[in-house]
Amino acid sequence: MKIAIGSDHAAYKEKQILINYLENRGLTVLDFGTDSEDSVDYPIFGQKVAKSVLNEIANKGIIICGTGIGISIAANRFKGIRAALCTSESHAEMSRKHNDSNILALGSRTTNIDLLKKIVKVWLETDFEAGRHINRLNMLDE
């Protein structure tokens, strides 16, 4: 599985840690930046990851900024993207089961790295339930 990942400067360190975590799980990681802690604009990186998922360059994406809010808004501007901001394992599970989220949004300033790893693990390991949820997902893109 290919995972696209992107962050702003506020989450650069966490992104690097998560890249290592994902690669140690045997996943291919496509890093769409940023490449340092120098100040950058989060929409750029949310959009890069969203486009990589839409264009099937990556199977799923992970985006991170200080709170996860801004970068998730940037990614969700694209039809077909379902970026879910998750602050708990429960959020991650339900975002996959009921919403088939294809991008996981995280906050580096609101969630510690150990919990970020747990959230990523649950998100990657949870399947979409489909069924009654398919009609609801279709409504999002109408």
Query: What is the overall pLDDT average?
Result: 96
Give the strand line-up of the largest sheet. 2-1-3-5-4
Low-confidence stretches: none
CATH architecture: 3-Layer(aba) Sandwich
* String of helices and strands: EHEHEHEHEHH
CATH topology: Ribose 5-phosphate Isomerase B, Chain: A
Summing up helix and strand content along with how strands pair, one would put the structural category as alpha/beta
Q: Tell me the quaternary state.
A: single chain
List the SSEs and their pairings.
Blueprint: E1 2-7, H1 12-24, E2 28-31, H2 42-54, E3 60-65, H3 69-75, E4 83-85, H4 89-97, E5 103-107, H5 113-125, H6 133-141
Parallel strand pairs: 1-2, 1-3, 3-5, 4-5
What does this structure look like?
By secondary structure, the protein is an alpha/beta fold. It has a single domain, classed as Sugar-phosphate isomerase, RpiB/LacA/LacB (Ribose 5-phosphate Isomerase B, Chain: A, 3-Layer(aba) Sandwich). 45% of the residues lie in helices and 17% in strands. The chain is built from 6 helices and 5 strands. It has a 5-stranded parallel beta sheet, with helices on both faces. Strand 1 (2-7), helix 1 and strand 2 (28-31) form a beta-alpha-beta unit. It is globular, with a radius of gyration of 14 Å. The mean pLDDT is 96.
Short description, anyone?
The chain has 142 residues and is of the alpha/beta class. The chain is 45% helix and 17% strand. The chain is globular, with a radius of gyration of 14 Å.
